[in-house]
């Protein structure tokens, strides 16, 4: 049975089912990955008569196999897949047998760490159903608690620094201008991140700025 060994924000193994799966940042895909650089639906891994193939789903930052960017490729066992800052190794045994080929990778240190853990047999492995169940369980109670913590943290930060509240207000204004009531929660979060990513010096530090702080006005451009 083919197996994926995944290293995003943690290390884990996943036995592949006999049907195609989608990998990405969204929690609604078959294999959710904790990586801010990924697209929500980043790539698909498809079982074949002999092995698997991988297809990039028009992701923004690309899918790489053994260091080369691909649109579609047939996978061989011990291949190293890189998406964003995440490293994935595909196996059909309990160890990585290739012994070379890490120098061309985008994340060679992370890949080496993952392969060492694979060969030491210290990677916990589950099947797709149990992995998805763990995500579903977390998405109910634990994520509500996280949301409450984040809201309280946001209120505290706004009280300590009114400029942060002003920036947040401008982002909210921009979101409303774009027709927020018709948008889903996931797409709204993604748009907020895009707007905030265009802002610099949120902490009020301008030592690296080329000029005066005009972050708030930048949101409206």
How does this model look, in words?
By secondary structure, the protein is an alpha+beta fold. The protein is 35% helix and 23% strand. It contains six helices and twelve strands. The protein has helices at residues 108-120, 128-138, 141-160, 162-177, 185-197, 215-219, and strands at residues 3-7, 11-15, 21-24, 31-32, 43-48, 51-56, 63-65, 68-70, 72-75, 80-83, 86-91, 125-127. The strands form two sheets. It has a seven-stranded mixed β-sheet with strand order 8-7-10-11-1-2-12. Strand 5 and strand 6 (51-56) form a beta hairpin. Helix 3 (141-160) packs across helix 4. The radius of gyration is 21 Å and the shape is elongated. 20% of the residues are buried. Mean pLDDT is 80; it is low at 131-139 and 201-221.
Structural class: alpha+beta
Strand segment tally: 12
Share of β-strand residues? 15-25%
The helix-strand sequence is EEEEEEEEEEEHEHHHHH
Alpha carbon gap, first and last residue: 52 Å
Based on CA atoms alone, the radius of gyration comes out at 21 Å
Mean pLDDT metric:
80
Uncertain runs with pLDDT below 50, 5 residues or more?
Answer: 131-139, 201-221
Please describe the biggest sheet, giving its number of strands, its sense, and whether it closes into a barrel.
7 strands, mixed
Q: Which sequence of strands runs across the widest sheet?
A: 8-7-10-11-1-2-12
Q: Helical region count?
A: 6
Shape: elongated
Helix content: 25-40%
């Amino acid at each position: 049975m083919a197996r994926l060994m995944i290293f995003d924000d943690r290390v884990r193994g996943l036995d592949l089912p006999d049907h195609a799966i989608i990998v990405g940042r969204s929690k609604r895909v078959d294999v959710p990955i904790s990586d801010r650089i990924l697209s929500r639906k980043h790539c698909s891994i498809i079982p074949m008569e002999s092995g698997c193939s991988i297809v990039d789903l028009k992701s923004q930052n690309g899918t790489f196999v053994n260091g080369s960017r691909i649109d579609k490729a047939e996978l061989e066992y011990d291949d190293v897949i890189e998406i964003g800052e995440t490293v994935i190794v595909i196996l059909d045994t309990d160890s990585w047998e290739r012994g070379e080929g890490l120098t061309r990778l985008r994340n060679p240190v992370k890949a080496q760490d993952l392969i060492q853990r694979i060969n030491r047999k210290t990677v916990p492995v589950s099947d797709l159903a149990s992995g998805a169940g763990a995500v579903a369980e977390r998405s109910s109670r634990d994520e509500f608690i996280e949301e409450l913590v984040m809201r309280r943290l946001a209120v505290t930060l706004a009280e300590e620094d009114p400029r942060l509240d002003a920036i947040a207000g401008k982002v909210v204004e921009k979101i409303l201008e774009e027709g927020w009531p018709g948008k889903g929660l996931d797409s709204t979060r993604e748009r907020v991140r895009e707007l905030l990513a265009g802002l610099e010096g949120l902490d009020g530090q301008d030592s690296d700025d080329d000029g005066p702080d005009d972050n708030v006005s930048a949101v409206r451009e």
